[in-house]
Amino acid sequence: MLLLVLRLSVAMTLLTVTVATTSYCATINSTTSSGASGYFAMKVDPGYATYSFYLDLSNFIDSAGVCSSNNIASGLNYHIHTYWQNTEKSSYGTSCSSSYTGGHYDPYLACASASQSYSTSCASLGRTSSSYICSSSLFASGNRTECEVGDLSGKFGKSIPTTGSIFSSGPYVDYRPPDEINYGTSTPKSFPWTSVVFHCGSARVLCALLSKTDLTACAPAFTSSPTTTPTVTPTTTPTVTPTSSPVNDLTVFGDKQKSIAAIVVICVVGGIIIGGLVIGLILTYLSTRDQQPPKDAKKLIDGSEALVGLNTEAAL
Questions:
Q1: Are 207 and 197 in contact, with CB atoms under 8 Å apart?
Q2: Residue 188's Cα: distance from chain center in Å?
Q3: Mind listing the pLDDT tens digit for each residue in 51-107?
Q4: Contact 194/85 with Cβ under 8 angstroms?
Q5: CB proximity list for 285: less than 8 A, separation 6 or greater
Q6: Cβ neighbour number for residue 110 with a 10 Å cutoff
Q7: What three-state secondary structure class fits 248?
Q8: Residue 212 CA from chain centroid, whole number
Q9: What are the tens digits of pLDDT across the range 136-192?
Q10: Strands 195-200 and 203-209
Q11: Which residues in 23-44 are b (16+ Cβ under 10 Å) and which e?
């Protein structure tokens, strides 16, 4: 009976094994973002996150003049920020300032100058921007504590345009991801994370709200190429067709996640089956042993039978 219950338990476990994944997406809408369009896609799994994004600045009207052709060619910085105070889900320029998007999400107080905690907890610890040494090489080598959680370009390097004014970056795998408990919510020792901000040079140029959603509802809107002449003149002649499809980027890191999930499930299932077999063998051994009389008892029985024989012979 116990063995039957064990087998049923194993079967139920196999049916209920799942791998939790949560998706977030920020849509850059050309109507509210001065002609820029694109998306920032993010998947969070237990212990790591994956990012991929696509931006088209070909039609971006740079009224503040912060995105010169040199700035675009040298790449964009991008960060996860704490707040979102805009009425629209994406914006640009001054609407991406700290008044609207806050500072970098920095729960472990790495303390770059744009950290949300820079003037509070960082100051209390005596940490200043001069001691912030995050770089993509440090992060890749495993020295992850030097980077703010929200400093994505610090972790993975600037996003360089693939063609003209078009950026298609990722997938990037982050083993120090944002804590899901802080999505849009503060905790006693951490600010929330809510938005993504892109910089031309040091200036904030584009920003968008991160929404919890299925990625397929966000990314496909940007698979087509712009049809109008770019207003930003890069150092080389722009080509509006990206060198790689943004949907393919999502498919790549989606396939990786499926492969990882499959490996996890196989390992868990294999462990459960092996454990069940071991327990079954132990139970079988115990059951067989209990049915055999002890060796001392057998000797006692044989001795008793011999004594009865002697007594019978004496009586005769």
A1: yes
A2: 23
A3: 999 999 999 998 888 887 778 889 999 999 999 999 999 999 999 999 999 999 999
A4: no
A5: none
A6: 25
A7: helix
A8: 13
A9: 999 999 999 999 999 999 999 999 999 899 999 999 999 999 999 999 999 999 999
A10: antiparallel
A11: bbbbbbbbebbbbbbbbbbbbb
How many CA atoms does the CB half-sphere of 148 hold within 13 Å? Answer: 32
CA distances from 260 to 3, 48, 177, 257, 274 (A): 32, 12, 17, 5, 21
Q: Are 35 and 59 in contact (CB under 8 A)?
A: yes
Question: Residues 6 or more apart from 107 whose CB is under 8 A from it?
Answer: 149, 179, 182, 189, 190, 191
Q: Which is nearest to 172 in space by CA: 146, 199, 140?
A: 140
> Two tokens at 200?
């031309």
The token pair that represents 54 in the structure block: 């696509």
User: Cα separation of 16 and 272, whole Å?
Assistant: 13
List, as one string, the DSSP characters of 252-305: HHHHHHHHHHHHHHHHHHHHHHHHHHHHHHHHHHHHHHHHSPPHHHHHHHHHHH
- Measured CA to CA, the distance from residue 173 to residue 151 in angstroms comes to 14
From 104, 120, 103, select the one nearest 152 (Cα to Cα): 104
Q: Which two tokens stand for residue 68?
A: 């010169």
Three-state DSSP at 199 gives strand
Strand partners, 37: 56
- Do β-strands 90-92 and 22-28 pair in parallel, antiparallel, or remain unpaired? unpaired
Alpha-carbon span 184 to 210, nearest angstrom:
9
- Least Cα distance to 208 among 81, 295, 110, 57 occurs for 81
| Domains of the chain listed by start with CATH number | 20-244 (2.60.40.200)
In Å, how far are 48, 109, 185, 219 from 42, measured between CA atoms? 11, 22, 18, 11
Q: Containing H/E element for 69? A: helix 69-74
